[in-house]
Amino acid sequence: MKLFIDTANIDEIKEAASWGILDGCTTNPSLIAREGRDFAAAVHEICEIVQGPVSAEVVAQDADGMLEEAALLRQIHPHVVIKLPMSHEGLKACRALSDEGTPVNMTLIFSVNQAVLAAKAGAAYVSPFIGRIDDTGQDGIAVLSDIIDVFNTYYFETEVLAASIRHTAHALDAARLGSHVSTMPFKVMKAMAYHPLTDKGNAAFLADWAKVPGDGLIPTVERFLATRQKESA
Ligand code: G3P
């Protein structure tokens, strides 16, 4: 299972990368706009930090325009994956890019049928938007589950990338269902590490450690090692 961060914020990406768990990054025009900086420079900086695929989205709405933008985006950095909106033109561009070996993330997926078409067009990833499906009163996780089932039935090579993850329960469900990738905001990724019993347990361990005789872990262990070294010399 791969974990991607869904942001264009450099501090968040650096922090998540420092935990050693980051497999990739997804951006979109809204996330880029939120940072208020040059698009190409931002994508390049993200690619230098993230040692994996970084989705950068086209804004053209016709296949020729998408291909022209994709050719430029790919030159920014080898980590760039081309993000295309789901549409007939997007499918056309997806097929052309996939045929030349360029990885595509087909985005704005809200149904199994859309996901099937994207996979048939050779997309490397399809991105169902779980949270936005929930927003309509439908069940985003049920759609994700159906997409995974259909892809498994036909052994599609396209990876399912659970997107629009809003909270840790979405992240948990995506993991349970076997989503190949989950992309999530920094705050959700951060929250995945928390459990009240971990904090409580750690506090109890520290309180008990204070009762252990000696002047602290490092001096105690260093003294022990030095004594052993002397004895074996
Ligand atoms: O990866 C897609 C994501 O950025 C959309 O999330 O929360 O705007 O629906 P959201």
Plain-language structure description:
- The protein is an alpha/beta fold and 233 residues long.
- It has 2 domains: 2-191, TIM Barrel, CATH 3.20.20; 196-232, no CATH class.
- It is 55% helix and 15% strand.
- The chain contains 12 helices and 8 strands.
- It has helices spanning 10-18, 29-35, 39-49, 63-76, 88-99, 112-120, 130-135, 140-153, 168-177, 186-191, 196-209, 217-232, and strands spanning 2-6, 24-26, 54-57, 80-85, 104-109, 125-128, 159-162, 181-184.
- It has an 8-stranded parallel barrel, surrounded by 6 helices.
- α1 (10-18) packs parallel to α3 (39-49) and α6 packs parallel to α8 (140-153).
- The protein is elongated.
- The model has no long low-confidence stretch (mean pLDDT 97).
- SN-glycerol-3-phosphate binds at residues 6, 26, 28, 31, 129, 131-132, 163-164, 166, 183.
- The site of SN-glycerol-3-phosphate has 11 residues, from α7.
Instruction: Report the top-level CATH class of the largest domain.
Output: Alpha Beta
Secondary structure class reads alpha/beta
What's the order of the H and E elements?
EHEHHEHEHEHEHHEHEHHH
Number of beta-strand segments = 8
Hetero groups in this structure are: SN-glycerol-3-phosphate
* Estimated radius of gyration: 23 Å
- Global geometry: elongated
- CATH-defined architecture of the largest domain: Alpha-Beta Barrel
CATH topology of the largest domain: TIM Barrel
Oligomer: single chain
* Low-pLDDT segments: none
Q: What's the number of structural domains? A: 2
Strand residues, percent: 15-25%
CATH superfamily descriptor of the largest domain:
Aldolase class I
Mean pLDDT: 97
Q: How many separate helices? A: 12
Strand neighbour order, sheet with most strands: 1-2-3-4-5-6-7-8
